[in-house]
Amino acid sequence: MTKKSTRIVGTYKILPEDVSIKPATIKERIIKALPEDMKVTASGERPIAFGMVALVVDINFEEQDGLQDHLESILEKVEGVSEIEALQLFRL
User: Fold this and answer.
1) Against a cut of 0.90, is the pTM above it?
2) What is the per-residue pLDDT for 85?
3) CATH number for 28
4) How many domains does the chain have?
């Protein structure tokens, strides 16, 4: 019997570098940047201030040492991303 791997869903708030960068644009860039075993499962927008809108995404990935750090490194490198904040993590 093979052991099924545990999956994690991480919710991240992602701030754009500039008010002109739309959350939908950042979401598409994130989807393209993620490896095949990581998936955006939900997303939304959260107004911040002065017209700035953050993207909030749920990303599903395997529970494995170092994988959360790897995911956050990918998110930080996406074009147009100013900063990221992990809001919550939970096991499925």
Assistant:
1) yes
2) 97
3) 3.30.70.60
4) 1
